[in-house]
User: Which sequence fits this backbone?
């Protein structure tokens, strides 16, 4: 942790200058989001801590089986009755000895295919897990907290958003798709009205309607506050499209160097090594985005003071940063993984490749090349394909031979099973189970039983800017200080209008 907590600047209340990325399964957990929000308060800058909304039921179940007292405390704050039900099934008493039962929650698909008892049980767990993550992230400070969702994980949207709003989440950030239905869900919940979400079903003429009534979970007379909705997009076309049709409060414009999922290259060209080639057609027109009158943040290679200053000069409210926080002390990434990546960065030996095949979602995905991980072809070929978590599955219309109705499939599951469900063998080539692989990287799913995969942005120049310890480690506050210390503050009114740039006084 940095020695001094002297304010870097005096900033008026308003939009965040720095948004922490909502990364992976348990990487951006409540501890990281809370640390970022509190660092901003200590340093006198506006930071937004963000929890990842992916795989939250898996994370909660994993923590309960480790006897996590923080999770128990937050569960009881949510609903003591529901807490008893969940703990009765998953909680393991006593300190964690390294041996867990390894029990997983039901797959999200039971919300469609399960009987009423199973649906109710899973819905309670899903709402509670989002509440727990946000409640813990917000505990003990007044800084803003957001939750990041992947549009592709459609089965989880309604319970995740409800649980997050019950815990007082301030921002909802959604990418990896076209999340045009999310603003209406937030508004319905804020009105104490049932919310609906139309889920994509491959091969079906109509979408499948999911519904959830917040009054099934809210105490008598309680009401919810609508959080700000921020679209994560790579291009001005999507930003303009959504701004014209739904209530969008801001935009994160993410470039192809960012970690995790990226937008496909518009030119559909690939280099000799198979990585996509991004060109002029992929560059967003920031002037058109600024004309929408909403704040926007730039992401992907913006984790240095110089890039922050550049972003502000382009009209941005600030930047979103993921990779620098992924490697800090408070992130959920396993210590051994963080240590190895930091060592390779310091030696200028880190390689991050954009894979067009790894993610079951179909989006390009940044993969860190590490021996022993799923980026290692020997490890990839030797593993057993499995689909036991099921958050990135695709819903499809079963044919009469399968009995009709809605089924779920994933190109990373066993090949025979995927083909039997109407998929093609070619679609399975190179696919990684990100649910298990990313979870294993964070130690949520047993890394000894399941190979891990790590993701990071391609630009690691931030590492030279951060004051690190002798072993290369650093804290979230060190990231905030390094990124914002030398950059001018660009302030926004609550209406989103840009004011003049102010100078930053650095102590």
Assistant:
């Amino acid at each position: 942790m940095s020695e001094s907590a002297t304010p870097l600047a005096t900033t008026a209340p308003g939009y965040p200058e720095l948004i922490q990325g909502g990364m992976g399964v348990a990487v951006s957990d409540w501890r990281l989001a809370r640390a970022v929000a509190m660092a901003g308060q200590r340093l006198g800058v506006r930071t937004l801590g963000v929890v990842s909304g992916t795989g939250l039921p898996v994370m909660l179940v994993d923590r309960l089986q480790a006897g996590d007292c923080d999770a128990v405390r937050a569960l009881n704050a949510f609903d003591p009755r529901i807490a008893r039900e969940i703990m009765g099934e998953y909680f393991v008493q006593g300190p964690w000895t390294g041996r867990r039962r390894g029990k997983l929650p039901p797959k999200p698909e039971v919300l469609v295919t399960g009987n009423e008892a199973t649906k109710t049980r899973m819905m309670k767990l899903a709402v509670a897990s989002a509440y727990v993550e946000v409640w813990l992230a917000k505990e003990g400070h007044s800084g803003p907290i957001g939750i990041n969702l992947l549009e592709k994980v459609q089965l989880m949207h309604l319970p995740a958003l409800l649980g997050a709003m019950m815990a007082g989440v301030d921002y909802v950030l959604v990418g990896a798709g076209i999340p045009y239905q999310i603003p209406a869900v937030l508004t319905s919940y804020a009105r104490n009205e049932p919310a609906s979400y139309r889920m994509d079903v491959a091969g079906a003429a109509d979408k499948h309607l999911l519904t959830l009534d917040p009054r099934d979970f809210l105490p008598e007379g309680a009401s919810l506050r609508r959080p700000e909705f921020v679209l994560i997009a790579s291009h001005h076309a999507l930003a303009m499209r959504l701004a014209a049709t739904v209530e969008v409060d801001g935009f994160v414009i993410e470039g192809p160097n960012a970690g995790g999922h990226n937008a496909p290259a518009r030119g559909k060209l690939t280099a000799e090594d198979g990585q996509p080639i991004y060109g002029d057609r992929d560059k967003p027109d920031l002037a058109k985005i600024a004309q929408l009158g909403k704040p926007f943040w730039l992401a992907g290679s913006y984790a240095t003071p110089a890039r922050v200053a550049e972003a502000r000069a382009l009209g941005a409210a600030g930047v979103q940063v993921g990779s620098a926080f992924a490697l800090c002390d408070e992130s959920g990434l396993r210590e051994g993984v963080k240590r190895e990546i930091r060592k390779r960065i310091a030696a200028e030996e880190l390689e991050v490749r954009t894979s067009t095949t790894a993610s079951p979602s179909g989006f390009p995905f940044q993969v860190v090349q590490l021996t022993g991980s799923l980026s290692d072809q020997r490890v990839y070929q030797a593993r057993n394909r499995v689909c036991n978590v099921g958050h990135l599955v695709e819903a499809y219309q079963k044919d009469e031979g399968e009995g009709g109705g809605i089924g779920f499939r994933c190109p990373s599951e066993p090949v025979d099973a995927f083909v039997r469900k109407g998929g093609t063998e070619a679609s399975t080539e190179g696919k990684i189970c990100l649910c298990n692989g990313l979870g294993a990287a964070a130690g949520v799913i047993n890394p000894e039983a399941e190979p891990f995969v790590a993701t990071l942005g391609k630009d690691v120049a931030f590492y030279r800017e951060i004051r690190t310890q002798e072993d290369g480690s650093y804290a979230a506050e060190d990231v905030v200080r390094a990124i914002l210390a030398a950059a001018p503050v660009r302030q926004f009114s609550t209406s989103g209008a840009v004011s003049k740039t102010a100078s930053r006084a650095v102590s």
About this structure: The CA atoms of residues 352 and 368 lie 4 Å apart. Residues 116-138 form the longest helix (23 residues). The chain has 18 helices and 18 strands.
